[in-house]
Amino acid sequence: MGQRTVSRKSVVPETEHLTTSSSEVSACWSLFQTEIGWCGLQGRDETVERFLMGLPRRSDLQQLIESESAGEGSFSANQFIEGNWYPELQERLQDYFQGAQVEFQDVKLKLIKMTPFQSRVIHALQQIGYGGQITYGELAEKAGSPRAARAVGTVMASNRIPILIPCHRVIASGGKLGGFSAPQGTSLKEHLLMLESRVQF
């Protein structure tokens, strides 16, 4: 069978768009609902800087954004303004969470302050396509550091752009799930792997 066709009618269409002011080009936040809960995309132009997912309420997502931004020294109260950023990518993510086979390798990403090892790990991970899985040890080997499975786990835990950088496809040896730092934890990781495994090629 080919790629699954997904009706978009089941996705709640309500969308919120927020922008964090800066002296340069504004970094926009778009908040939108999906099958797994509220998600937020942040970026400039068509380059993604952050993706948050799986929050039960819009207010929970905005609180997380504010908490993260305050920790980075980039947020002050009432600094959000309305905007509309990258609606095409929002739609692709909504389709993905409904079970469609969607790839994101073409999306531009901004990766901040990465070591050469981290860059190699992320590059190797991006070669693992929809429905694929790889262990932490195998990914370490692909990145040229076969003894660095634990360090690979640290890179996955600090991933700021999940799904687009598919850290959910990295599992522990013996078929165990391993960790997942999204709000819903390993239950969401298991859900995503099962979602991808249902697509028939």
Please provide a brief summary of the model.
The protein is of the alpha/beta class and 201 residues long.
Number of domains: 2
Characterize the quaternary organization of these chains: single chain
The number of helices is 6
Distance between the termini: 5 Å
The strand count comes to 8
Mean pLDDT score: 84
Overall radius of gyration: 17 Å
Based on helices, strands and strand pairing, what is the structural class?
Answer: alpha/beta
Give the neighbour order of strands across the main sheet: 5-1-2-3-4-6
Main sheet makeup: 6 strands, mixed
- Shape, per Cα inertia axes: globular
Helix content: 25-40%
Strand and helix order? EEEEHEHEHEHHEH
Strand content: 15-25%
Low-confidence blocks of residues: 5-23, 75-79
Can you describe this structure?
The protein is of the alpha/beta class. The chain has two domains: 90 residues, no CATH class; 87 residues, Arc Repressor Mutant, subunit A (Orthogonal Bundle), CATH 1.10.10. It contains six helices and eight strands, in the order E-E-E-E-H-E-H-E-H-E-H-H-E-H. The strands form two sheets. A six-stranded mixed β-sheet has the order 5-1-2-3-4-6. Strands 7-8 form a two-stranded parallel ribbon. A hairpin with a 6-residue loop joins strand 1 and strand 2. The longest helix has 14 residues. About 12% of the residues have low confidence.
